[in-house]
What does this fold into?
Amino acid sequence: MDQNLKVILQQLEAEKSIDRDTLLEAIRSAIETAARKSMNRVSDVTVDVDENTLGFKVFEIRTVVENIQDDALEISLEEALQLNPAVVVGNRLKVPTEPKDFGRIAAQTAKQVIIQKIKDAERDRIYDEFKEREGDLVTGTVKRNHHGNIVVSVGRAEAVVPYREQSPRENFKPGDRIRAYLLEVEKGPRGTGVILSRTSPELVRGLFEQEVPELYDGTVEIRAISREPGSRTKVAVASNDANVDAVGACVGMKGSRVRAVVEELSGEKIDIVRWSDNPMELCANALNPADILNLEIDEDSGSIRVTVPQDQLSLAIGKRGQNARLASKLIGWNIDIHGEGEPKDDEEAVEPGVAETAPAPTPDLPTDESAEGGPTDDNDVDDA
It folds into this structure.
């Protein structure tokens, strides 16, 4: 039996990556439960397991008394002194015992306890491992689609990309490689839940950090991101080194760096704009490539009134108000866009996440190259 336990212990250590102490405690607890079931009387039972030989001893915990009233819980002082000469009345003493019936039911109980303990240990290991990685990017393989959710194999664990965290542009099939943002790790009655996201703005941040060394070492920083998953994202970047151009570093030679991110996001358009602490300057950068004729800020209402040439009004607003909406989210101010010559009225400003009402939008117009040499409709990169 001891030899079999040794083999099982070694296999579990290798296969489940569970430490030896945890496995020994599972065996000890299982034998204790089985021993307690095999005894007819109610006793306080404990088990010691030798970690080297895996041999075990069963003990009953009894209280030392002068006169025994319950022989299942008490031991006379005379008997106790034979086991330990130092005991006195009132001490609790471990008394060796032999379970009379260590049969099939007790063995089955031991097996169930060991299995449950191993499951609990494996669940804790997965939780600890992924909790430390919360907020990072993880790479896995799609196993299956289950009721709209994507089940992903990440190492020895299973993670889930819920339907709400999936980009409408993407369609993953079993066997596909997937890279996602580790959104949340939680413990539940059915095990550890690892939740991934393909819609989080932090996914874009993580992808850029993998492609742009200047972001990884802190020379360039991403200050803000606004995203509509599957469609378009605006990223505001700033440089901590006067000799390094933040936008150029993120765009890369001939757009190579930003193109890699676009491809990972299945063609989602990326606009890279220069960050400014001045909200008016940042607003002008965020609405690029539209020409800005005038900016007026209203700090009381938290809005900025933008005037553009009448023929660029649709370009500034974007399809279904998307350009203005993303710019508003990026800078954290409401944006009110008007064409040149329009009177100042009480039209609603574009709030973050709310599209500007505009006359019959037209398709986006072709735009100029950025100063850094990166291709853009605001530094857009289309599939090569």
